[in-house]
Amino acid sequence: MTRPINHKSILGNEKGMVLAVTLIMIAVLVLLGTTAVMTVTTDLKIAGNDRQNQVALYNAEAGVEQVIAYLRTHTTVTYPTVDATQSIINGGTCPTSQCTQIPVTAPSGISFNTTANLYGKNVANKLYVFRMTGTGAGNASKTIEAYITKKFSLSEGVDGALAMYGNNPAIAGGGAIDGNDHSLPSTSCTGSSCHTAADGPGPPFPGLYSTETVTKGSTTLTGNPAQVLNNSAAALAKDDQWTALADGIVNSGLYDSTFSSSRTDPKITVLTSYTTVTGNNHYYGIIVVSGTDVEIETAGTMTFEGLIILANGATLTTKGTANTYGSVITCNHSELTVTLNGTPTLMYSSAAIANLSNINAPNFVHKTAWRDVF
Predict the structure, then answer these.
(1) Tell me, what DSSP letter sits at residue 124?
(2) Which of 1, 14, 22, 255 could form a cystine bridge with 268, CB 3.0-4.6 A?
(3) 62-117: pLDDT as tens digits
(4) Residue 331 above 70 pLDDT?
(5) 126: region left, alpha or beta (phi > 0 left; psi from -120 to 50 alpha)
(6) Do the beta carbons of residue 325 and residue 345 sit within 8 Å?
(7) What is the predicted pLDDT for the residue at 25?
(8) Which residues contact 190 (CB under 8 A, 6 or more apart)?
(9) 308 vs 4, 11, 300, 305, 333, CA distance in Å?
């Protein structure tokens, strides 16, 4: 005989619930664990990719510095002469005149492309651009676009036709020193026929500027004012600044052994032994004369445009009717520095100083800006 079903008993029976709840909890924990593992794995991948992207960026930055170092140490680089279009820069082609290829070597453990295309960006102002791509593991890649200038500039600034920093400055002889701004003479003139009117575009400077009282002979001084004595801390600091500039040029080794004879292509020349510059020639640029008892002697009817720096005991002696346009600087001195024999003239000229920006000197390559392009 069949027993009747006790529905109340079945409904109240809790046997097997613990197992069911346990299974549900295990399923939830497995799901949470799987989700956590997937999340951690994804985060690790993201962190790894981010790290490799950073490695690629650092490698690209290292490549940029390698290109700049190459440009600063090679005097034979032919820079672009024509501005490149943006499409050419983006496309990576390297047409003649618009682009020059720069070879670089990646150090061990650093990965970047070993050829950089240097493009003209604003050639008139000596602005150029190149791209460098660095790589990391897992196909990580970063490309930097770097802008550089190759333009000499005088951060110190000149203070007169003749500016004397250092101890016991002295001028012997006669001649004339004029701090008024002079326009530049004809490149074919000689001697006194090269003298121009004080009609340059810039303001006048002192004829003689010094940080100590100057012992001088019969030299004629003109300018606005004719002579300035300034022993302020800022003025005295310029002795060190000009000396550092002169020493930096000498120590770099990146200068020419001959004088420039082109106004549009001035040069930096270093003299560390007695040198005579004579004749009817015109010269342009910067002449650094460095060393105790090292002398530059100008004679005849020659004309120089630019900057003459007499450093570390060097001296200038003139003869004849030699002309100097720009500025003469003496620094780190303790004795007689300038002797003006004959009828030479030292004339301040802002145009002669401005033309120094045309100096083609590798050690004046500077990075002006960069950006991460992709």
Answers:
(1) G
(2) 255
(3) 999 999 999 988 878 889 999 999 999 999 999 999 999 999 999 999 999 999 99
(4) yes
(5) left
(6) no
(7) 82
(8) 280, 301, 303
(9) 124, 111, 18, 9, 15
Cα separation, 223 vs 208, in Å, equals: 8
Give residue 44's pLDDT band: very low, low, confident or very high (50, 70, 90).
low
| Residue in the structure block whose two tokens are 């970063």 | 142
CA 177 to chain centre: 32
**Quick one: three-class SS letters along 337-373?**
CEEECCCCEEEECHHHHHHHHHCCCHHHEEEEEEEEC
What's the CA gap between 357 and 374, in Å, rounded?
34
Asked whether residue 339 carries a pLDDT value surpassing 90, the answer given is yes
Q: At 63, which amino acid appears?
A: G
Asked if pLDDT for residue 124 goes beyond 90, the answer is no
User: Looking at beta carbons, which pairs linking 305-309 to residues 24 or more positions away fall under 8 Å?
Assistant: 305/184, 305/263, 305/266, 305/349, 305/352, 305/355, 306/266, 306/352, 306/353, 306/355, 306/356, 307/154, 307/158, 307/353, 307/356, 309/242, 309/245, 309/246
Distance, in Å, from the CA atom of 333 to the CA atom of 166, rounded to the nearest integer, reads 5
3-state SS class at 69: helix
Per-residue pLDDT, 43: 56
